[in-house]
């Protein structure tokens, strides 16, 4: 699955309430923060917890 397709699928599932919490894990330098930022930017700002921190 391409990253864009995954982001689109996750956005859909988050916005419909199927997914409420999402964990992203992997080894160092695998792109977790980059992926989280791309997902954050794709989501409606009212959907995201305002306490979101990419440093967590």
From TrEMBL:
<dbReference type="InterPro" id="IPR027417">
    <property type="entry name" value="P-loop_NTPase"/>
</dbReference>
<protein>
    <submittedName>
        <fullName>Ribonucleoside-triphosphate reductase</fullName>
    </submittedName>
</protein>
